[in-house]
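User: what does the whole thing look like in 3D?
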Amino acid sequence: MQKLLEEIATTAATNPDKGRVATYIPELAGTDPNQFGIAAAMADGRVFSAGDADVPFSIQSVSKVFALALALGRVGDAMWTRVGREPSGLSFDSVLLLERENGIPRNPFINAGALVTTDTYLAGSSPREALGELLRFIRAAADDDGIHINEKVARSELATAHRNYSLAHYLASFGNMQASIDKVLGTYCHQCGVEMTCRQLAMAGRFLVDGDKMPALVSAERRRRINALMMTCGHYDGSGDFAFRVGMPGKSGVGGGILVVSPGRASIAVWSPGLNPYGNSKLGTEAMEAFARKTGWSVFGVPQGHEQVT
Amino acid sequence: MQKLLEEIATTAATNPDKGRVATYIPELAGTDPNQFGIAAAMADGRVFSAGDADVPFSIQSVSKVFALALALGRVGDAMWTRVGREPSGLSFDSVLLLERENGIPRNPFINAGALVTTDTYLAGSSPREALGELLRFIRAAADDDGIHINEKVARSELATAHRNYSLAHYLASFGNMQASIDKVLGTYCHQCGVEMTCRQLAMAGRFLVDGDKMPALVSAERRRRINALMMTCGHYDGSGDFAFRVGMPGKSGVGGGILVVSPGRASIAVWSPGLNPYGNSKLGTEAMEAFARKTGWSVFGVPQGHEQVT
Amino acid sequence: MQKLLEEIATTAATNPDKGRVATYIPELAGTDPNQFGIAAAMADGRVFSAGDADVPFSIQSVSKVFALALALGRVGDAMWTRVGREPSGLSFDSVLLLERENGIPRNPFINAGALVTTDTYLAGSSPREALGELLRFIRAAADDDGIHINEKVARSELATAHRNYSLAHYLASFGNMQASIDKVLGTYCHQCGVEMTCRQLAMAGRFLVDGDKMPALVSAERRRRINALMMTCGHYDGSGDFAFRVGMPGKSGVGGGILVVSPGRASIAVWSPGLNPYGNSKLGTEAMEAFARKTGWSVFGVPQGHEQVT
Amino acid sequence: MQKLLEEIATTAATNPDKGRVATYIPELAGTDPNQFGIAAAMADGRVFSAGDADVPFSIQSVSKVFALALALGRVGDAMWTRVGREPSGLSFDSVLLLERENGIPRNPFINAGALVTTDTYLAGSSPREALGELLRFIRAAADDDGIHINEKVARSELATAHRNYSLAHYLASFGNMQASIDKVLGTYCHQCGVEMTCRQLAMAGRFLVDGDKMPALVSAERRRRINALMMTCGHYDGSGDFAFRVGMPGKSGVGGGILVVSPGRASIAVWSPGLNPYGNSKLGTEAMEAFARKTGWSVFGVPQGHEQVT
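Assistant: Here's the predicted 3D structure for the full assembly of 1240 residues, as structure tokens:
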């Protein structure tokens, strides 16, 4: 596995097309696109990594996975009355389907749905308390108290969050927001501003991997269901393509990070800031495609045998 | 496994809500909703079944899986220039996204995409030849020469195919149809009219299961990719829900059949004519949910261990 | 004319179906639907009225006409780089087309376009100054210093303005908002809260009527163009129907008021709080249809002759 | 008037930007863009013309006006149960709104609506009979038996009519087509293939002008209503702009012709084959804008006085 990750990091380093760094969050616009890191936390407890796996980055939308787990922990299946479970077929901040469907976002991984998720785990508490709880969840998952929120990024994001404000007010107009818009947006932007290294993110993703040595933060059934949502909705309107090419549940963020789960085997984190046209990490996606090919870990192929790669 | 299938068949038989039989194909409108069959063809060669597993039914859109395999065999990845790989987020015969995307259907499992698939495997040949080839593929997959097309159903379908004619002409207006519209529609409606029993369909689905005893009709990589498409797009705008609840790749048809693949383990076919609001078999979906829960075969959970069910 | 207005008022009074009063602005929800007023300010200076023509009501979206004139006075045709001139084909607060067209609202009479209008006349000034200027414009047009803003209605509207906040943030995300969202929304809701009687509104509409005795607040060309916009876009997705049935430029408001212009002849105001399914005054629309039939003032018929009605 | 038309023709001749000739109908693609004709048939019986006013051209969608009058003559207001009266806000052959509105086209001047119109006047008769009746109507309106259909253009159009076939089948899938699709399309393409000169078209448009010397083919009320539809829907998604700039009811065709009505005054026809981005004649639109400015005939300005231009 170590050798595989190093090969992948080397291939990425020599790829001349790094994709384009997102510019709409001013604080992130200056990130160096020549960075690439990858880490894998195995079900047996071992952790491997290569490249810039210890450089912290903004996890952005990858945070939606942790937020969803937290919100489901709060209200359980009642959440599904406020948000759907279907791929949206449209870009991450589209309002089109929201209008067709009376304010029920398609799924919790597009922005509208994630705002409902944030509103759900906010419940009656203050943003500070809610974010504290989110951090505790992530730190417990990663077994690492060093994970924190980058306040500067969060504020930079909040200052340019017109599209998300628009979605939140739109949801509110259908009665699908409970806390005040400002609270929800403040919390949401801080959630997106969580910073981790690949190694930390791979560790934090272990709660989605079945296994005795994995942190038991959610039930096996919920684990499977979150993985299913990551598979069908984790990459916006590029979800089908990721499933086709990689074949593992994954959630990407505009900061260039991707968290991928190999059920029963490992949690993998990859990061490179340049994005492809879908808004997902270009080198990260390509790396995961190579990873899946080499390991045979696509959930759509043989479920046993190939994993001698380790 | 035999016991499990029988339990599931019994539960289905006592469920008072059978869903609603589709009425838009006159020839199918009169089907008795009180029928339920299930069959599983295992990777080790054994076959189990329960209920009305030997009653033939119209596979309808399940045929899109075989048609896709055939078309990919013809033109390979060139096919992806004419059709996408993303869930549509909309109902099976919607034109909305087609307009947004210049005549490239979202995926090969919505009707517009399936028309492109049919046009692809038609290529230069006559409908008769093309359908002959499709039947040969299905019979080889199922190891059963008794599989045929119900001519009456095909004609009934063709006579009421205005929406599909509309989609085909729409595609043609973007240059995304090669054969004549009448040929494509005639072939497509006959393809939908293929008739099988649950046992035959489970057998025919084995080409999507990795295993030494399975028919090697497509490469391992293509197998994984077709499974990925079934997972993200196999149930129209209910695909996310099926992934969430069942967690296995599946393709449904309006005749009430569903083909489900457990990679490396089995091909499962279930059938009951009453549909849920998404247009997928109601009892069939519920049966597969129970099946997944009992077997632990969700691809999103543990990849080994649970399968002692057999 | 006096006789005609009285006949129309009598017919309205006896109509059992008054339409439904809008409920989404709490302060207006309690309005008595049994009210009906009509007034006509003629090009020769005479004014006629009947029914509840001296009861003040909330002009709501009728204010968009005055706001547009004011904004055009500020920036001239430069305004048309920020807003279009086409009917939207969709309801008044839809975001669908906004997404298709990169944040350029279809026309200044749907809410998104009106927010751009407000942002335009706000320019660098404070909401208080801008609203003062708007009131001066309306008072000058109506030759009546008694016209004011109902502060309670404005605040009630602001408190439930999620949909409009959503549109404003959406526009801002495309760079099509200059002032702060809060300023624009505050100003917009106060603009909608202008209160007039039918008599006052008919007087205020005279600046859109060509004639020596009419207030010359805009050029003849601008007058024609505003009238054209009222014809094609003045009644949301009921604009075509109003043109078909009435044949005069008109602008409706959710408070039940309609301002109608007969070019060269008169400005007519009608009011009744109950709405039809398009969100336009039900009795008001029917009254204007009868008015047009009796007077022959449709712009699509003979331009001279019939007006002996006076 | 003669002098005005000649000035306008001269201006057009010297304009370097002629727009782009439509290429999707092969038979029309080769038309010389340097042609420009204009003609006006006055309410008092006089006819003026300038430029290439005697060159026949394909009226294409201008035919929708005559077809609508014929269909209304057949079934009266019952027609409005099958087609709406609202501007579509979208391009002429869009299916988007058709899907939203269950197969009821927005208005009779977009293609979907015109197909319903054709189906309506076809009724039980053969295409030959129906087209004969349409030609009789047009010839009576123009007082000219020399008007005919260009068979070559009609066939060229039919051979590339995929989008219109798509719309017709779509309508049929909602039960909004009565005759067979092939009959409707054949009739529709021949209707579009009617050929006239500007002089003939101006004459034919007189039935929409109120006046003693005008042909009385429809009632005054129907005349006004057809004019209203031309104003709000006559130029597809450029209708608002035409109303804004010209201020008279008009209907354009992709062949470069525009029929404009000045109620009570004149019927005007202008033709130049190059189109603007909306698909309307570029020089024709500009000519009508100049014409409206010079004559003051916008229906949105003074209804009397200016017409001394004659």
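In plain terms: Chain C has 13 helices and ten strands. Chain C touches chain A at residues 94-96, 99, 162-163, 165-170, 172-173, 181 (CB under 8 Å).
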